């Protein structure tokens, strides 16, 4: 998962980064709200951690801007020194999903992050996952379409699984590269486009089959459901 931290205190940034990376996630830090909001136009994150007091705008304004521009899907956690009942009510009312007071306690932060991610991304569970006519077995690394196995290379499977686990979400190119290829790989845009095109063809991602892949110019891709329902595959 990609998690963005918005806090102008370098010590807090590093503390939260350590906790996030210990959980196996990627961390991106920002010191002002404008920089984060600017990056959100072309990047996607799975969760945001937001401080209240920032050099350019307060945390609630940032959260409200995120909700207006991105929507309600991304979980947001306030981590701030403010902790009165009025503060908590205001923080949650502006669009945050959870509220935690400083000083940061690693155990509590870890628990809250895990809880938010579980609620927001239940499809990231392992085992058998079904999306209409598409059935994934994450243990065996296999995929069936209408009960028929599809031969797939490792990265093709990883790409397909990642996109189906995030149906409806706009996924930036960097997000896809990191989750499918890993952070150390420099993947040319043409290679990513080729993989997505091959996946679209191999899995027959069409409205008639329930899912389509749409390219969003300058940002990335979105796998969307066409709304069709199919009988359960036995």
Automatic annotation (TrEMBL):
Protein name, UniProt field: Response regulator transcription factor
Recorded GO MF terms: phosphorelay response regulator activity; transcription cis-regulatory region binding
Protein origin, superkingdom: Bacteria
Location of the DNA-binding region in this protein: 126-225
InterPro entries xrefs: CheY-like_superfamily, OmpR/PhoB-type_DNA-bd, Sig_transdc_resp-reg_receiver, WalR-like, WH-like_DNA-bd_sf
Taxonomic placement: Bacteria, Pseudomonadati, Pseudomonadota, Betaproteobacteria, Burkholderiales
Residue ranges annotated for the OmpR/PhoB-type domain, each copy included: 126-225
Originating species: Lampropedia aestuarii
Keywords: DNA-binding, Phosphoprotein, Two-component regulatory system
Modified residues (4-aspartylphosphate): 51
Keyword DNA-binding attributed: yes
